[in-house]
Amino acid sequence: MRDYLSELNEPQREAVTHIQGPLMIIAGAGSGKTRVLTYRIAYLLDHGVDPFNILALTFTNKAAQEMRERIERIIGPEARNLWMGTFHSVFAKILRIDGFKLGYTSNFTIYDTDDSKSLLRSIIKEMQLDDKTYKPNYVLNRISGAKNNLISWQMYNDNPIFQAEDTAAQMPELGRIYRTYAMRCFSANAMDFDDLLFNTNVLFRDHLDVLNKYQHKFRHVMVDEFQDTNISQYLITRKLAAVTQNICVVGDDAQSIYAFRGANIQNILNFRKDYPDLKVVKLEQNYRSTKNIVNAANSLIARNKSQLEKTIFSDNEEGARIEVIRAMSDNEEGRIISHEIFEGKLTGLKNNDFAILYRTNAQSRAFEEALRKINIPYRIIGGLSFYQRKEIKDILAYLRFTANQKDEEAFKRIINQPKRGIGDTTVAKIVVTAAEQQVSVWDVVSHIRNFFEGRAANAIEGFADLVRSYILMLEEGKDAHAIAMHVAKTSGLLHELYMDKTVEGVARHENVQELLNSIRAFVDNDENEDKSLGAFLQTVSLLTTADEEDDGDNDKVTMMTIHGAKGLEFRHVFVVGMEENLFPSQMMLKSRDDLEEERRLFYVAITRAEKKLTLSYAQQRYTWGKMTFCEPSRFLEEIDSKYLLLGDKGIPQGFEAAGPPAAAVTRRPAGIGEPVKRAPAASHLKPVQAARPVEAHVPTPDFTPSDTRDLKAGDRVEHPKFGFGEVKKMEQMGATAKAVIQFEKEGEKTLLLSFAKLRII
Questions:
Q1: CB neighbours of 414 closer than 8 A, spacing ≥ 6?
Q2: What Rg do the C-alpha atoms of the chain give, in angstroms?
Q3: How far apart are the C-alpha atoms of 495 and 501, rounded to whole Å?
Q4: What is the 3-state secondary structure (H, E, C) of 136-153?
């Protein structure tokens, strides 16, 4: 066994060897967090702790798998007995075992977001409510928020505050929808993702014998990415560790970026209040990035008030300063960045050394087009998931209904897929009949002659016979692959796809074959003791986008949102769209907490870079079909200017059309020889001033932009970013009106009234 402790620095070693009592590891970006977690578990096993008594909770299955493999290399096959996985996968496992106490069977279905929205659409329609008022997205988010705060439908409907809020939002029926949604999920023997957490809390609250069992089973509880936990997750882990107090949480408050998913940064900020004898270890050395990148990130995040005290540093090389690029438009931004990547490859970098990070998925278009034109391969992370493709969801719905005949959403998806002549009206009647008779849809379908006659009944009988054959294979103990192959062939789905010889049809057929291959791999994997259909479905239902395998060709430029980049690293990172109201997002300027979360998101983006970081922004871009003029993001001015590079460069003419020969991208120092030819108006940001000591302006609580058509010199105004000021003069250029405003803290600014948001005081 290798001496893994010798590979650690002093704080890392301290974190690994402290195994009794509560421990909080504050792990800065690039500080070797995964190594510390891995070695800490190995150290526990080395010191006689049974792997069955260790619970390690992560945020992706991939992270759990990587840690398990590392531990196995150190300790051996005993590592396979660890309870390690995501919150949802571990709690789903507990609910499979003990969920019967809440009225669920062990083969309950896990609804994904599409299933939940589909069910809500049905409920809203059945209640004869307007789906433009009761938008399924909003309703689902409202229900999700309630569950993450452990508010049941009963509590929701008994709370006059919630009712008043819903009435004010002109959605007084939200409580009734929540009640119906919860009951329909229960009758379908189904849980959504939030239920996996909510029901685990209920199970531990109402069944102390179950809680006691797991408290004594899990002698050591470890939680990764603790800053991203919500109230529900925190309460579960606190209950589990209540007996031994052996809880270890790992996280970085500076990387808390998931408040929109219910993450509560107070969990990590206030952890000491719950554990007065808490041991705190700070991992402050960044092994990933250059000094310039680390120091730039520090100068930015220092602006946040709500944070734990720490000093992140790097002993790596100084490194290049951070390049800041200004483009005339979003399309030019795409061309400039693609040119930068091409030049970077001439120095020996590979495609997969580069990442383009943006605030919203919609920004990817310009970069996709620019990279395609010069034949640079790329991949977009967070696009359409393999398991969200229609043909894949169709097959999986058949498998889900085979495992759980109460699954109403799976039934609705497959009853007329492929076409059997069973219309939506007939399907709706089956669902309504099942509800009225208080039976499952399968009870109706499998005895259809008791309820329906005619041609549709004949087709439904044929469907029922198919499903019976699938259920029989399940009862005979056939493995997941045998059942899936039988379903694919006999349902008609595979044949229908095979007969479609279009490019799209061939691709869909290949996707189904790939699904069947993945099920075969699941069955053939010796580590999977349970090779049943139910076990496979649970694995698939809990996959995240980050857990899915790529196409095997890894040498591609990576494009993704900053949220999706959490935990990743690249040699050269481009953070694009650095514009006010885009990043920070316009929706995140309403409070200091929101603005601080956006700043943490930018901090995450910066710290993904190992050797080089480039920031870019456009002066104008299309938004909702309209050309808008953009201001550079306030975040650019919050980075100490000594870490920024403000040079000059351009794109060789014709580059964006075909891709340049090597000689075409030679740089020339400014003023020597011929000037570099460039695409129109390509240039760099003007020198960014050193970060001002004044705080960013937070708009007044009642801030609402005024009608500025009658604005005049002498008026007092408030701007959401620049604060309070006085209009010095008005200028008119054709149809464009400008106001020259002297702001109290920001100095003089000239603003276009068609874009500026001003409140006249």
A1: 394, 397, 398, 401, 491
A2: 29
A3: 11
A4: HHHHHHHHHHHHHCCCCH
Distances (CA, A) of 682 to 322, 333, 643: 18, 9, 22
Closest among 341, 338, 356, 385 to 560, alpha carbons compared = 356
Rounded CA-CA distance 296/638 in Å is: 9
The residues annotated as belonging to the active site are 33-34, 224-225, 255, 608
Amino acid at 24: M
Residue 76 φ/ψ region, left for φ over 0, alpha for ψ in the -120 to 50 degree band, beta for the rest = left
Reduced to 3 states, what is the DSSP secondary structure of residue 421? coil
For 524-570, how does the pLDDT look when each residue is reduced to its tens digit (9 = 90+)? 887 788 889 988 998 888 775 555 545 556 889 999 999 989 889 99
Written as one letter, the residue type at 330 is D
Convert 679-707 to b/e letters by CB count within 10 Å (16 or more is b). beebbbbeebeebeeeebbbbeeeeeeee
Q: 363-398: buried (b, 16+ CB within 10 Å) or exposed (e) per residue?
A: bbebbeebbebbebebbbbeeeebbeeebbbbbbbb
What stretches of 200-265 adopt beta strand conformation (E)?
220-223, 247-251
Nearest to 656 by CA among 305, 193, 333: 333
The β-bridge partners of 83 are 55
Classify burial at 107, counting beta carbons within 10 Å of its beta carbon; exposed 0-12, middle 13-18, buried 19 or more. buried
Place of tokens 């508010």: 151
Pairing of strands 23-27, 54-58: unpaired
Q: How far apart are CA 567 and CA 29, in angstroms?
A: 9
For residues 500 and 520, give the distance between their C-alpha atoms in angstroms, rounded to a whole number. Answer: 25
The DSSP secondary-structure symbol of 387 reads G
In sequence order, which residues have a C-beta less than 8 Å from that of residue 175 and are 6 or more positions away? 153, 156, 157, 162, 163, 166
State both tokens at 628.
Answer: 């808008």
Which of 264, 509, 287, 226 is CA-nearest to residue 395?
A: 509
pLDDT digit string, tens, across residues 612-621: 999 999 998 8
**What 3-state class would DSSP assign to 255?**
helix
- Reduce the DSSP state of residue 738 to 3 states and report it: strand
pTM of the model: 0.75
Percent helix, strand, coil in the chain, to 5, is 50, 15, 35
Structure tokens at 627: 């050309």
Highest mean pLDDT among 59-63, 594-598, 732-736: 594-598
In order of 29, 36, 251, 475, the CA distances from 33 in angstroms are 8, 5, 9, 45
Render pLDDT for 117-136 as a digit per residue (tens, 0 to 9). Answer: 999 999 999 999 998 999 99
Which among 609, 651, 622 is positioned nearest to 373, based on CA atoms?
651
Per DSSP, which regions of 415-469 are E strands? none
Question: Cis before residue 584, ω within 30 degrees of 0?
Answer: yes
Name the CA dihedral angle for 509, 110, 196, 95, rounded to a multiple of 10 degrees.
Answer: -110
